[in-house]
Design goal:
The protein has 375 residues and is mostly helical. Helix content is 67%, strand content 4%. A hairpin with a 2-residue loop joins strand 2 and strand 3.
């Protein structure tokens, strides 16, 4: 009897963290710090008189993010899932505050950030995680009704659509599209009827077309990726400079710190287009290392999702993997000219505290779930 009790107690002990997942995330974040330092030094010195300005801030963001990841990794499962509707209303409130001038920061003609003491916060990054938590809760609780239209389809569409509407008011077209893709992919595995998803996708594509056609500049920029060299000094400028950076990198690259495109040729060199700087300075070998880390991270993330017995845990892990995976794919697609240029940060690598915080939040939740994964 005592042996049975001991065996049962051992089975209840939490398992080990997925160290491959953790290692890949930390390597990417470390490489991101190095590349932020390399790509932002000249700009930081001109704007702030301190070439380490962006690097120091990113290092602080990384420390806070790793701390949050650790908390999430050890958090009890009940607290982790928590009051999902409370998180949902909180993120809606934060998104609404970005539309109010006293609380928000305007940059590039958009209000996507809000003051948070000496730093700024972009609620859209956290909205991705909160939407996943809501959809995971919804699809796990409504499995018997998920194929119905009124109960299984309308509520998640309304929640996602409302979040997307607020983002469009900022405006953040790319963020709204990102949330729409999260909704579609989670609904696909959640059990929603394909016909409902197909119709909603048609409406979504139609709405995108109207928004693009209603803005001449957005229309030109949206199709600039088809032939960026047609207007290399205007709408195609950023993509052309990205091509130059990748093309000059070769096999081993120009060397760390020796890139030329970051010298005020490539806009957003330390943000959305940091992979172009990495490709120029570290070459094919450096880009391959990033791809290897991305592959390991996503492999382990989806493995954690598939190994869950609880349906809510499985949907949650799958959604967190999607947040990271879509970020990787969309950023790389933009900098390589495969899709229209739109601001999508490279997870773990791009400068920005909000994105780094959201990425490590996803990793922390995945690590938490990996402790109960079947082996």
């Amino acid at each position: 009897m005592s042996a049975v009790r001991v065996a049962t107690a051992e089975n209840k002990l939490p398992g080990r963290f997925d160290l491959w997942l953790l290692g890949a995330a930390l390597v990417l974040a470390g490489l991101g710090l190095v590349m932020v330092f390399s790509s932002s030094g000249v700009m930081a010195e001109r704007l702030n008189g301190n070439r380490y300005f962006f690097f120091q801030r990113q290092a602080l963001f990384a420390l806070v993010s790793v701390g949050l990841m650790t908390i999430c990794a050890y958090m009890p499962r009940k607290v982790l899932h928590g009051p999902v509707y409370l998180w949902l209303f909180a993120i809606i409130g934060l998104l609404v505050l970005t539309l109010v001038p006293p609380f928000s920061v305007k940059a590039g003609g958009a209000r996507r950030w809000m003051h948070l003491g000496p730093a700024t916060l972009q609620p859209m990054e956290l909205a991705k995680v909160v939407l996943v938590m809501y959809l995971a809760y919804f699809f796990s609780q409504k499995q018997k009704l998920v194929r119905s239209f009124s109960v299984g389809f309308i509520p998640p569409v309304m929640v996602t659509g409302f979040l997307g509407l607020i983002l469009l008011l900022q405006p953040d077209f790319g963020g709204a599209v990102f949330l729409g893709m999260l909704f579609f992919l989670m609904s696909l595995v959640g059990g929603t009827r394909i016909t409902y998803l197909a119709v909603s996708m048609m409406f979504g594509i139609g709405a995108m077309g109207l928004l693009i056609a209603s803005s001449p500049y957005r229309f030109k920029r949206w199709f600039a990726f088809l032939d960026p060299f047609k207007d290399p000094q205007n709408v195609g400028y950023q993509l052309v400079q990205s091509f130059y950076a990748f093309g000059s990198g070769g096999i081993v690259g120009a060397g760390f710190g020796a890139g030329k495109q970051k010298l005020f040729y490539l806009p957003e060199a330390h943000n959305d287009f940091i992979m172009a700087v990495l490709g120029e300075e570290l070459g094919f070998i450096g880009v391959s290392l990033v791809f290897l880390c991305i592959g390991i991270l996503l492999w382990r993330a989806f493995k954690v999702a598939l190994a869950q017995d609880d349906l809510r845990d499985r949907f949650t892990a799958y959604g967190m993997a999607l947040v990271l995976g879509l970020g990787f794919v969309l950023n790389l697609a933009v900098v390589l000219g495969c899709v229209p240029p739109k601001g999508v940060a490279m997870p773990f690598l791009s400068y920005g505290g909000s994105n780094l915080l959201a990425c490590f939040l996803c990793v922390g939740i995945l690590l938490n779930l990996s402790r109960s994964a079947r082996t």
